Task: structure prediction
Amino acid sequence: MIVSRSQIVVRYAETDMMGVVYHGNFLPWFEVGRTTLLKEMGIIYRQLEADGYRLPVLEVAVKYQRPALYDDTITIVTTLREKPLLRIRLDYEVRRGDELLATGHTIHAFIDLAGKPVRPPASVVAVFDGAFR
Result:
């Protein structure tokens, strides 16, 4: 299991007139968590794209527990529980300190530039193999 933590401060533009974060803004926070986790593992998303790979979202789910508010410092806890094969599932917790604000997950698949499903590159497979011994 691989766990990564990313922090952000809620910007005013992410909130409504009550200072509450609009629910759709949790999805970009998931992306921050995903790309940070991959980067910490040594998988650079920009390089994947340069090599002709994409990781589109196949599924996303969010369960909201408490609102995030303007100027909160938010921690996105991203977890990769199982070694990916063709699909990658990442689980997320969004926290304000110890308080759980939301949970969710995304599922992604490797595709080529034509949009066809492909196996991940050997370099990525090697990273996953090393992380899940």
User: Anything to note?
Assistant: The helical segments are 26-41, 45-50, 122-131. The CA atoms of residues 12 and 70 lie 6 Å apart. The radius of gyration is 16 Å. The chain has a mean pLDDT of 96.
